[in-house]
Specification:
This is F-box domain-containing protein. By secondary structure, the chain is of the alpha/beta class. Helix content is 32%, strand content 16%. It is built from eight helices and nine strands. Helix 7 packs across helix 8.
Length: 280
């Protein structure tokens, strides 16, 4: 079911909680002015509903509050069968970006940890202007909880002073999510955060080819490229989609990430040639 609501009011779905609405619904995609409408529609649904795909998007002048996010997440966890949900997309698209920049607040553990209950996720995409406060421990928990992941995209528009997640955390995805093909995440890739590029046996991923680093801080290209290529053996495409200064110009860090892109592409090409010779 796909539904678009242009009503700016905080409307409630016209069914009381516990009415067991839509017992055979498997796909639910909603676009509304705020997440309260999405939450109110899910509440009257049948308990343990076997939704496989959920897509919520909200666009309004002010960013959604942390309370709205919390209620929505906990309602989904309470109503949806944990072993059924495979795809989850939540986007908070603020119409007034300048105002949102002043009022933003990042989403943290309270908004992400409950989602670990959905053990069959293959696709997760979460977007909020203020971004998400991740750290290495939480990333490791997510990677272990979602071993079937094929795409992971968790990001925002604003640049935090320094991400709590370091480049080391990406090894958790490589170790636990062997089917992961596409990854969007902000992390600290400065020299002091780069571990030994030699991978632990069975701790690499051979499927991931695309990485969007958003506005990840970085100081040197070569060690970052070496580490990424050691844990993601098939990586060849690195996107830098959000690094600009206050005037909208590209920064030195974006140039360094471009160098990383060229290095990992070269490494991927060399590996492909070596594999071709071995097969021959």
């Amino acid at each position: 079911m796909t539904f678009n609501s242009n009503d700016g009011t905080n409307a409630k779905f016209p069914l009381p909680p516990g009415s067991c609405a839509f017992p055979v619904l498997r796909t639910l995609k909603l676009s509304s002015p705020d997440f309260s409408y999405c939450t109110n529609l899910v509440k009257p649904m049948a308990p343990d509903c076997a939704l496989k795909t959920i897509g919520f998007s909200a666009a309004k002048r002010l960013p959604s509050t942390l309370t709205e996010w919390t209620r929505m997440i906990y309602t989904l966890v309470d109503k949806c069968r944990h072993s059924a949900l495979e795809e989850l997309l939540i986007k908070d698209l603020d119409a007034d970006r300048e105002l949102a920049n002043r009022l933003h607040a990042s989403r943290g553990v309270d908004h992400l940890k409950p989602l670990l209950a959905f053990t069959q996720l293959t696709f997760i995409s979460l977007y909020a202007v203020g971004g998400f406060s991740l750290d290495d421990a939480l990333v490791d928990e997510m990677a272990m909880a979602w071993p079937h992941l094929q795409q992971f995209h968790v990001c925002g528009h604003l640049r935090a002073p320094l991400p709590g997640t370091t480049i080391s955390a990406l090894a958790s995805f490589a170790r636990h999510c062997k089917r992961l093909r596409s990854l969007t995440i902000t992390f600290n890739a400065r020299d002091e955060c780069i571990p030994d590029p030699t991978p632990i046996p069975q701790s690499f991923n051979a499927m991931l080819s695309f990485l969007d680093v958003r506005n990840s801080p970085i100081t040197s290209a070569a060690p970052v490229a070496a580490f990424l290529s050691s844990i993601f053996s098939a990586i060849f495409n690195i996107e830098v989609s959000a690094i600009r200064d206050e005037f909208g110009d590209e920064t030195e860090e974006k140039e360094i990430w471009r160098e990383v892109y060229h290095l990992v592409s070269d490494i991927a090409r060399i590996r492909a040639q070596e594999n071709a010779r071995t097969d021959y």
